[in-house]
Amino acid sequence: MRLAPLLQFSRIVRTAIAVLLLAASVVSAQDVTEPVLKGAFLYHFAIYTEWPPEALAAGAPLVICVVGDTAVADAVQREVKARKKGTHELTVLRVPLTAPPARGCHLLYVSGGPIGQVGQSIAADRDSPVLTISDVDGFHTVGGITQFYFEHGTLKFTVDLASAKRARLQISSRLLQLAKRR
To answer: Three-class SS string for 126-164?
Structure first.
């Protein structure tokens, strides 16, 4: 009869472990917010894109500029912390939407604002080796390279290959397999 308390204790321990595992998975799922997803995507775009040698000198930092979205800037900052792309440190520059277009960016993410304002933000970089990304509808119509969108609750992206070619950027086939191409 001494087994009964042991079996009951065993059931309690198993139940407690199951509750802890379930709680941990719920907390992890809650950590994946839209800004965190976009930050991870921006990091991977930086890693899986090649810039012409004159645009990214050996040892120079690769600059990721985030315009108009501090939550995404924070997420990218956490994502790139202590990481490199080859010999290039990854640096995040935060730019207010109302500021003039950022200079010295290798990857330029623009969020919020009407399409006309977003178009003005990337106009100077349209023919430069700058990977332009936005979540604004119609971004490709103003010369943008990559646009985020949601489909059935999943973050997806399009890539305008003509714009990428014009900017002299090579986007990895690994990344292009995930994209909807324009």
So the answer is: CCCCCEEEECCCCHHHHCCCEEEEEECCEEEEEECHHHH
